[in-house]
Amino acid sequence: MPSSPHQPSSQPPGPATIADVARMAGVSTATVSRALRDHPYVAATTKRKVLDAVARLRYVANPHASRLASGNTGTIGLIAPVLTSWYTSELVAGVEEVLSDADHDLLIGSASTRQRESMFRGDIQFRQRVDGIILVDVFCSEEGAVRLSTLGVPVVVLGERLHSVTSVAVDNAVGAALVADHLVDRGHHRIAMIGGQSHIDVAHNVPTERDAGFVGALRARGLDLDPTMRADGGFTIAGGRAALHRLLDSPTPPSAVFSMSDEMAFGALQALRERGMAPGRDLAVVGFDDHPVAESVGLTTVRQAVREIGRTGARLMVESLDGDAPVRHVAAPLELVVRESSGS
Amino acid sequence: MPSSPHQPSSQPPGPATIADVARMAGVSTATVSRALRDHPYVAATTKRKVLDAVARLRYVANPHASRLASGNTGTIGLIAPVLTSWYTSELVAGVEEVLSDADHDLLIGSASTRQRESMFRGDIQFRQRVDGIILVDVFCSEEGAVRLSTLGVPVVVLGERLHSVTSVAVDNAVGAALVADHLVDRGHHRIAMIGGQSHIDVAHNVPTERDAGFVGALRARGLDLDPTMRADGGFTIAGGRAALHRLLDSPTPPSAVFSMSDEMAFGALQALRERGMAPGRDLAVVGFDDHPVAESVGLTTVRQAVREIGRTGARLMVESLDGDAPVRHVAAPLELVVRESSGS
DNA sequence: CTGAAAGCGCTTACAG
DNA sequence: CTGAAAGCGCTTACAG
Q1: Which of A70, B94, B160, B172 is most exposed by smallest CB count within 10 Å?
Q2: What are the structural domains, with CATH classification, of chain B?
Q3: Above pLDDT 90, what percent of chain B?
Q4: Chain A residue with Cα closest to B103
């Protein structure tokens, strides 16, 4: 008979196991394990033999077995209210980048309200499945953070400044103040603001902080924000459009508007177009985020380095996993980007 | 001594195990396992006792142990070139939605080129970690698909029509033809096209198919696409902007332009603005995708139900996992959405 | 319908 | 520096 195209059969079926490697290298499975995990005290020659066998067998450790035996899950859980917004996906990409470099899986929990609540009871899809939890844009406040700490794994919160838990966030009040100053500098007196309670149903820190920062900065310049100049845009494009229409229907319409997100600002620009008005000329419009589309529509906005926030958060998480990590807060940078919409 | 605030101690430390449940319910661990996995032939009363104990102990099976013992990973791997584009994140959200309903984890592989290549060698981060693989927008062609099938797990490809592997995709040629017909119907003769080789470095089916569909439809209406009216926009906003500037610098500029993506169209609109020209009036612009921002800038475009493509793909994957699933292709719907940019 | 027992593939004290 | 062995927490034939 002609020889079969397959190997004679020292090759066991299915993926190679650590025992296969041990056999081929002529050592114990314990040694293979140590050699592979860069455990100290493995003779150089031994290590070489092991790595050799690993390469020949194309061995990859079964992660479930490793995790069961070691008690480490090798994965970080991430919870965010909405995953498809530009902001969130950019943030998550930053997290993923760092985590994959550190050889950690990322397990994403879609956070419907129900799940976010149960999260606080420590009773989540993440039980026994993650070594750490990253919260994105989930308003959890100090009490929530404290409860989270009881889960027994490190927690990093992104988008909210906290004391009891490591966090990274921009200073929303400062960002909003940049906008207020810019508009006042441009000579505006009648200024409107489009905010909202965001896409989530719980109280959220972002609109509150931006509101406070904006109003405070105006006041410092001797201006008050007329209550009728506050509109809710729900943090959506459609909401921003409707909000601006309402504001412009006022008997004394504004000459400038601060939209708490670029997406609401896009809606505002649409409303302007519908009225035959031009941004920058008939109304100054300023957003917040520096969404990729902002430049192409000439929108003045406050840029936040979103991906970098994600990266930083992931790095802090990895440090926590390694042990030596005090709770701390990192403030992410913010920068006013002036374009035509505020009258360049 | 006052009694400690902790339970007397029938409560073992750490999360409850299946043995704890078995003990409390007075059955074997085998029975607990069966009761929990809806195995047939478990007495109703027994099942009740087990579920009771589970609830009292707040037991959740350790997934690593389950996976090691059963050989099922309970997770689906997904590979996509870029995760942050609107298109991809929307698609992934659709996948996640269905998968989480089916109790599957989603493991996302960031697909740098290197990784995509090694993927084809079956030698990836997904080894022993996933029960199935979903490919998003990775041009893999029939040969690639065949090689993928050898990985031993079901594969579903999204964004490309394939025969050897289950796939779901829009008909790009048909979509582009819708645009061509629309522009010709509007009376345009000098028509340009902004395409590109996408963000990825490998040959991709999308631009090729849209190109062919567009050119074919024009020809059917008796028009040729002037070679100088083809510009590469690289599927980015900036690229689209530069491309339109080039086209408009032509001695005989176009009266209409088809941009193969909405994002490139946003760049084109920016270029128009920079020249003091208005979309719809001075130049008809049509995109492809129906990106959320498209409506607010009044962009005529071809809408694809992106999230639904993701959902469908995930459903097909779940079916494959359940066994009975022939290889098949599902065509996703496409629809021309007319707005002001093409002169309404 | 149920239990005893083997086994999944690793890791890690423990003892050289 | 290395090995024998126990153990991680489940699942699943196998035998009632």
Answers
A1: A70
A2: 18-61 (1.10.260.40), 74-170+307-333 (3.40.50.2300), 172-304 (3.40.50.2300)
A3: 65
A4: A125
